[in-house]
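Sample 1 of the test manifest.
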Amino acid sequence: MSLDKEKIKHVAKLARISVDDAKVESLTKDLNSIFKFIEQLNELNTDKVEPLTSILNQSLRSRKDEISDGKIREKVLKNSPKENEEFFVVPKVVE
Amino acid sequence: MADITNQSLNEIIENVKTKKVSSTDLTKAYIKNIESAKKLNAFVTTTFDQALDKAKQFDNKPNFDQLLPGIPLAVKDLFCTENTKTTAGSNILNNFIPSYESTVTKNLWNNGSFLLGKLNCDEFAMGSSNETSHYGNVINPVGDQLVPGGSSGGSSSALAADLTPATIGTDTGGSIRQPASFTGTVGLKPTYGLCSRWGIVAFASSLDQAGPMTKTIKDCAIMLESMSGFDDKDSTSINKKKEQYSKNLKDNIKGLKIGIPKEYRVDNMPKEVDELWEKGKKILKDLGAQLIDISLPHTKYALPTYYIVAPAEASSNLARYDGVRYGYRSKQGKDLIEMYEKTRSEGFGDEVKRRILIGTYVLSSGYYDAYYLKAQKVRQLIKKDFDDSFTKIDAILTPSTPSSAFKIGEKTNDPVSMYLNDIFTVPVNLAGLPALSMPAGVDKQGYPLGLQLIGKALDEQKILNIGYAFEKNCGFKNEIKKWWS
């Protein structure tokens, strides 16, 4: 299968990455060569193979549902790109 | 005293313990080396003042019973370090100062060491040459036009240039072993789950593992012992007793069965790589090991599988970089969606964007079965190849890389040719196994080449032992001229 420019713009939209038209050309070329490489897998018949879900021979641990930290709002907000005392700030989303 | 910085970590530790050198003098010696090696561009951030304070604290109240007494260490800039900027080689994290410490670095500090600086790497560890870093190319000390490998390229360069006595990297598809091979150093990717992933900037969570990069096998054992261990904060951390890898290091490998997989002899492989593999087999055989031909039939499908699984996981992991809570935020964008799109477009480099797009596509509605599910099935077959072989052998010997270090810019225009660099290292990540790259010789240009030892899950001690015996009998000496200072 080959990826055309429209498809790539659609995927970029899904990934929330703006791609300008100048870049779409080279991206199309690169992604198609990568997908050609990836599609070697189609040579293999995997009808009877179970997909791998974990490489560990153990199931995930569960833990008690209790608070292990907290009261660190200052730390959590320390790296926010736009400062506000208590919240993360984003561009206006409701009119 | 002769230049202490060209000694092995183990020798340096002995010198600290016997008070031949203080932690302060040791730290000063590395700072001097780092300051005269700016051309290599191995560091993104240095923490000299903090390191000198810690060294002084150690000298005032030394504890020589620790594994890493008073040892300064630089680490890959993918490990979150409390109050020290952590960039992951990306513009999108150019202002990120973690308020917490990764578990593996915390383990290192708890064993007596302290931070010397943060080492350059490919952006989000996506690359095989350190050319995708937002902070510029790193130079391989082996030659001024050569890449140091990737993604842990700052780590391999700094180690080989005596800018840190040992270091740690992360390995998702070969990012520790390939740079180790390119610089004539030792690199180990541990069993998935042996070292905690907590506090490491995530790339592909089912493949990522942190591991040591060192000058010798003994050093590798010391570092692995220091950094590994169960961690409740990583849901895939293995809960088992801690091993004493360095104390238990043995060079007797008589009777061990070493598998030689025929699928690792690939087309167009330079003759020297093949000759080196032969040399490696002979050394192990002369030491009493038994060589056994094996087959890992799905080897050629490992890279295509990897380039579905890794980008898929990356596209999910990197969804968090949206300019809202931390990291870079674009000044453009009139609404929330546009702010996301501009932030991610300006914050990520080309290779990272490529992989996010691949991952988004293979997980998108209508394509999931054809790509992602297919890849997880082939991954099962690759794992089964190893499981079947390991019923009759102790370890596997292969070349680490299909070539020695290449020139900067040589492969940047062709992503697939860059990806092929990891052809021998990727299968191990897909199967979750431990593997070691050890220096074994040089090619006709004099550039280092490594051999890889692959072990059973949690059998790190055995591959370290084989490596230890190999190292004593191989006669490799990393001769790097300090042309940069």
